[in-house]
């Protein structure tokens, strides 16, 4: 069944959300599941709402203003469904919309995906860092400012590579397809040829093709290449913000049952929403995370 969302971008966050309220996580598609798995691992008691805007994907080939407007609409939907915090699990949406989201919801914990330039600068041995990302991300003013700041402080050289079409292929779910290998060779190859010893996965979709990327790297060079995935850092920052706001659902693992007998608490809930196929998101949950979760198609 398709539900039409009534939330609008002018929706306001609840003044005092309970700690047991869910966390809203969204991405243009299934890429944000790479962040979701870190959140589930680090915050196992937190209830989660995951929104895959696959019907509007990819964000990476759309103007920043369009992505910002769309992000506001998705955020409003999640908040209308009770979210106490937001995770923008998409590099493109973070670049385009994190500032306006924080302006709209100043009292809500909101975490975006940092592009990993700082850890990459610390990891590189020769000072050359390749960045694989969407075209919008590598052209974004916020990203370029961060690149200049990190480069000035670390003297690292950042080699930027937009990756048109890669998100589309990953969304299809065939993670070992010849088409994905061709794109990875096209985009990672020039960075390796220029001497990069560190590659930033600047889109949350890309960790899902890590195995294929490692094969491409091994075919192109015998040098050791460091890969930077920032999903773990996002989950840690989310935990810090929730703790500071008193919103951690810090279940101690024991609840009182009948006659004072202790029982295990119910498992944390995960609800999926998508603007495309329910079956596709359910399959992504199963294939990429190994879990089953209810999914509802919505129109916003």
UniProtKB/TrEMBL annotation:
Substrate binds at residues 27-28, 59-60, 91-92, 204-205. The active site is at residues 90, 203. SUPFAM superfamilies: Aspartate/glutamate racemase (SSF53681). Keywords: Cell shape, Cell wall biogenesis/degradation, Isomerase, Peptidoglycan synthesis. InterPro entries: Asp/Glu/hydantoin_racemase, Asp/Glu_race, Asp/Glu_racemase_AS_1, Asp/Glu_racemase_AS_2, Glu_race. One of its GO terms (molecular function) is glutamate racemase activity. It is an enzyme of class 5 (isomerase). It catalyses: L-glutamate = D-glutamate. Transmembrane segments: none annotated. Its EC number is 5.1.1.3. Pathway: Cell wall biogenesis; peptidoglycan biosynthesis. Pfam families: Asp_Glu_race (PF01177). Provides the (R)-glutamate required for cell wall biosynthesis. Belongs to the aspartate/glutamate racemases family. This is Glutamate racemase. It comes from Massilia genomosp. 1. The lineage of its organism: Bacteria, Pseudomonadati, Pseudomonadota, Betaproteobacteria, Burkholderiales.
């Amino acid at each position: 069944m398709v539900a039409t969302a009534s939330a609008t971008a002018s929706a306001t966050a609840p003044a005092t959300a309970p700690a047991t309220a869910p966390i809203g996580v969204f991405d243009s598609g299934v890429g944000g599941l790479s962040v979701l798995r870190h959140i589930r691992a680090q915050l196992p008691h937190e209830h989660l709402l995951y929104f895959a805007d696959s019907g509007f994907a990819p964000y990476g080939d759309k103007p920043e203003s369009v992505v910002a407007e769309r992000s506001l609409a998705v955020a409003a939907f999640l908040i209308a469904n009770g979210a106490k915090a937001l995770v923008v699990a998409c590099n493109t949406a973070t670049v385009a919309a994190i500032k306006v989201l924080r302006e709209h919801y100043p009292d809500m914990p909101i975490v975006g995906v940092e592009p990993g330039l700082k850890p990459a600068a610390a990891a590189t041995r020769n000072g050359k860092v390749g960045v694989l990302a969407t075209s919008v991300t590598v052209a974004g003013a916020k990203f370029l400012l961060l690149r200049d700041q990190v480069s000035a402080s670390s003297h690292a050289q950042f080699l930027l590579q937009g990756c048109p079409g890669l998100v589309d292929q990953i969304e299809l779910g065939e993670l070992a397809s010849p088409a994905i290998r061709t794109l990875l060779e096209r985009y990672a190859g020039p960075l390796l040829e220029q001497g990069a010893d560190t590659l930033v996965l600047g889109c949350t979709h890309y960790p899902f093709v890590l195995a294929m990327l490692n094969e491409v790297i091994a075919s192109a060079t015998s040098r050791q290449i460091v890969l930077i995935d920032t999903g773990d850092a996002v989950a840690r920052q989310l935990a810090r913000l929730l703790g500071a706001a008193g919103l951690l659902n810090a279940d101690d693992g024991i609840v009182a049952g009948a006659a004072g007998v202790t029982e295990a608490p119910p498992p944390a809930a995960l609800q999926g929403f998508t603007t495309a196929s329910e079956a596709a998101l359910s399959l992504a949950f199963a294939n990429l995370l190994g879990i089953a979760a209810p999914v509802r198609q919505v129109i916003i």
